[in-house]
Amino acid sequence: MMLLFLTAKSQSWQPGRFYDVKGNLSTGLIRFGAGGKGPIKDEAFIEYKEDAKSDPIKLSASDLRSFVVSRDSFIVAASSGWSAYQLDFVQVVVDGPQRLFVVRGGGSGSGGGGGFRLV
Length: 119
Fold this sequence. Notes:
Blueprint: E1 2-6, E2 14-20, E3 25-32, E4 45-49, E5 57-60, E6 64-69, E7 72-78, E8 87-94, E9 100-104, E10 116-118
């Protein structure tokens, strides 16, 4: 598995879907990387709402298996020092016999950076 580190950017609401830890699929609108406090300390989170008129809810990484926002797919990963969070999201860039993941983070103002890491 190879990781590429990039700086996170706030996103607006995008069409998306997620699988929770029980395997249930929910579709609606997702905002990823918006900042602020998440529901569980030391875990990344997304915001979800069923439609444009619904109230948003925050879903912590431990609530999710994976999510798709627009055309980008993300999975939950345990951080080993590449993130300020213990559980964070990595983008699935290539899904095949060899997988390539992009880490969108650095969290807590570390600014991220560029580079590759083979894990």
